[in-house]
Specification:
The protein is mostly helical. Helix content is 73%, strand content 1%. Residues 225-234 have low confidence and may be disordered.
């Protein structure tokens, strides 16, 4: 019997994996983590409602859109998106190996790389379903504070959704490759996200082009309050490429690392420990 094509096989693995990811203990833990920004936004809304002075930065009342942009920068872009990429991306194949279930998938009459591609699509759908509701709740809680208008800020929310999805795809693809090549991929992923990237972004030269964050920050359009310490911090990261170049590079990162990951899965011999 002729095996099904790669796309059809990937869709079958996606259908099998999505439900498992959504109801896994990892998703529950990360769902609780994503509740942190919502609780912070709720606290800011309460402060703004109870106190006329509202939330202030250096004595100036901060607009809700500026606070929301700050949260996108510091919480989602710098922390949550890399964390989701590390914890899910490195586990796409590694979990199957640890659970000794990889052989059940590889004995099916489908291309090996379809297992990786299908699980990557399931990861992307799962993380989007986790992140976007959190961002929407934060948006509707924070933006009205300080006299902000939801209607005026809504186009930036759509851009934030696209930026976060691009980040999840890029980080997930990079760490999927790490998971197929390294024995302890979680440690390598955490070092890359919270050691390598923040360090080289502060250094002059070309090393920052070897990070995902360098291209993602070009897609963020939020402006920080100009008289705040946060604005000084953000200026450090403002050496960015154009939006078009960033989108092309992010697409190349996703396509290249997924291709390398699929090739690694096809060629590697998985010997399960007894």
């Amino acid at each position: 019997m002729k095996p099904p094509p790669l796309v059809q096989s990937s869709v079958r693995i996606f259908d099998l994996s999505l439900g498992q990811m959504l109801w896994s203990r990892r998703s529950v833990f990360l769902g609780v983590l994503l509740g942190g920004p919502v609780l912070l936004a709720l606290a800011l809304r309460i402060v703004s409602t109870l106190y006329e002075a509202g939330f202030r930065i250096n004595g100036v009342r901060a607009a809700g859109a500026s606070i929301f942009g700050m949260m996108i920068w510091l919480l989602y872009l710098r922390f949550i998106v890399p964390i989701l990429g590390v914890f899910y991306g490195t586990a796409l194949i590694a979990d199957e190996v640890d659970d000794k279930t990889i052989t059940y998938l590889f004995t099916r009459p489908i291309p090996r790389r379809a297992v990786l591609f299908g699980k990557f699509l399931a990861y992307l759908a799962c993380t989007v379903l986790l992140v976007l509701p959190s961002v929407m709740l934060v948006f509707f809680l924070v933006v009205p504070t300080g006299g902000g208008s939801i209607g005026a800020a809504f186009p930036s929310l759509v851009g934030d959704f696209g930026m976060l999805i691009a980040g999840l795809a890029a980080y997930g693809a990079v760490f999927a490759f790490v998971g197929t090549r390294v024995k302890r991929p979680l440690i390598v992923g955490l070092v890359f996200s919270f050691g390598w990237e923040p360090t080289v972004l502060l250094l002059p030269g070309y090393l920052k082009r070897l990070t995902v964050a360098y291209y993602l920050q070009a897609l963020v359009k939020h402006e920080m309050p100009q008289d705040s310490a946060v604005s000084v911090l953000m200026q450090v990261f403002r050496e960015v490429p154009s939006v078009a170049a960033s989108l092309v590079c992010l697409a190349a990162i996703v396509a290249g690392t997924l291709w390398l990951s699929g090739r690694a899965v096809e060629n590697r011999e998985y010997v399960l420990e007894q």
